[in-house]
Amino acid sequence: MLVLKSLLKQIISGQKLLTVLIDPDKMEVEQLPTFLHHVHQSVATHIFLGGSTDEASKTDSLAKAIKAQSHLPLVLFPGDVSQLTSHADALLFLSLISGDNAEYLIKKQVAAVSKLRDSQLEVIPTGYLLIENGKITTVERVTGTKPMSRKNIQLIVDTAKAGELLGMKLIYLEAGSGAAHPISAEIIKAVKSELKVPLIIGGGIKSKAQLDAAYSVGADIVVIGTAFEENLKFFNEIKKVTSSSITHEIINP
Questions:
Q1: How confident is the model at residue 58 (pLDDT cuts 50, 70, 90)?
Q2: pTM for the full predicted model
Q3: Per the similarity annotation, which family is this (predicted)?
Q4: Residue 108 pLDDT more than 50?
Q5: Is residue 61 marked as binding?
Q6: Is residue 10 part of a domain?
Q7: How many structural domains are present in the chain?
Q8: Is residue 175 marked as binding?
Q9: 164 is in an annotated binding site
Q10: Is residue 131 scored above 80 in pLDDT?
Q11: 2 in any annotated domain
């Protein structure tokens, strides 16, 4: 089943989705078996692969290794055309609609067409909004765009809705890697109330409480990267509930 179709089916059924973001600049192929073991024991439903830098990366070799070792859908989350690879299931075809840099609104996408023309990748148009989080992020530095103010919620809502009306299949609110503050509940709730397409939230979520809070106000998909890179114990907070664990809780309350 196509990634987007499956994703929509899961969301309609009431499932909240969790994506683990793997940054090629921070992950070695040799580290994958241990990292993916933790991912598979968790409630994670998807893997995103990509970073903010525009340098040639290890994306291709990592994608091959992930596909060989994981059953989870692998979706490219590229920072540049150089990060495109055919060894994935789908691609978030991002347009940075929160900024006015034409390079990231349309020019990078045009440059990608020659690589995508004969590709089997499922291409998912995605409206990408960078939201102020309290610190300068790599996305801001690389794209040369300013994040949207957390205080101007109506503008964030209108921008997200404009993305949907332009035909974007997903809307992604990004606080940035290692954000000081995640996207606020007020922003998530306001944006979700206007959208008919799935809402992705990423950046700054470092605990299960923050994860649950994002879901409770409307996030359909939450993306976590830095928190797992810095603290593998976080995976223990989001382990799958299995029949054996339920039995253990009943016997040992």
A1: confident
A2: 0.92
A3: Belongs to the GGGP/HepGP synthase family. Group II subfamily.
A4: yes
A5: no
A6: no
A7: 1
A8: yes
A9: no
A10: yes
A11: no
